[in-house]
Design a protein that fits this description.
- By secondary structure, the protein is an alpha/beta fold.
- It has a single domain, classed as P-loop containing nucleotide triphosphate hydrolases (Rossmann fold), CATH 3.40.50.
- The chain has a 7-stranded parallel sheet, with helices on both faces.
- Helix 1 runs parallel beside helix 2.
């Protein structure tokens, strides 16, 4: 069983969208998936509920409880954790102690970049991160690839100590699909496949361990 933590202290960066898409990708591939929703807004839980009738359903677990691991069924192959908004590294220690990788979504604005620095510094203080035993990857999210602002933001992200492992373009499709309890990975059209390709570097990085 692999556990991937999606976390960022800055709200509105697409954390839940990334967590649900990672969960859906694994479920569509036939894995038994649990989505641990540690965010009080419970958006990930509602996504799971809307998906409950699908063959690739994802089991939601309340991650706000310290005993959440007791609710993960035997035979679970993938655990995705949607961390609470606003939480710094010290508040995520229970998840950081067991995670196999941490995904940090960041949007390409000066405010988002500045707000993320303190969060990444707090992650770097965790013993497993500091000793190189827990990988942390940055995901540029809601990017507009042909804009100067996005290119400048990507240059900044590439200069940071954690690797930039994926670049996800901005698309209204994410809003629509999340509202339906679905994901890009539930479809096969040519347009959707272009967006799916954005995820391949992240999936490859996550599966390296």
């Amino acid at each position: 069983m692999k556990t991937w933590l999606v976390a960022c202290s800055k709200g509105g960066v697409g954390k839940t969208t990334i967590a649900t898409h990672l969960a859906a990708e694994a479920a569509v591939a036939g894995q038994n998936v649990v989505l641990v929703d540690a965010d009080p807004q419970a958006s990930a839980t509602r996504w799971c509920q809307r998906r409950a009738g699908m063959a690739s359903a994802v089991l939601p677990v309340d991650g706000s409880r310290k005993s959440w691991q007791k609710h993960v069924p035997d035979g679970t192959q993938r655990v995705i954790v949607d961390a609470p908004a606003g939480a710094m590294g010290s508040a995520l220690e229970g998840f950081l102690d067991i995670a196999d990788a941490v995904v940090v979504p960041i949007q390409p604005s000066a405010l988002d970049l500045e707000a993320s620095i303190g969060f990444l510094e707090s992650l770097g203080k965790h013993p497993r991160v500091r000793k190189g035993k827990l990988r942390v990857g940055l995901v540029g999210n809601r990017l507009k690839p042909n804009t100067n602002a996005t290119q400048q933001a990507l240059d900044v992200l590439r200069s940071w100590p954690f690797p930039l492992v994926a670049q996800l373009r901005d698309s209204q499709a994410y809003v629509v699909l999340t509202g339906l309890g679905k994901s890009l990975f539930d479809y096969h059209s040519a347009q959707i496949r272009e967006h799916q390709a954005d995820w391949q570097p992240l999936l490859h990085w996550l599966r390296k361990d």
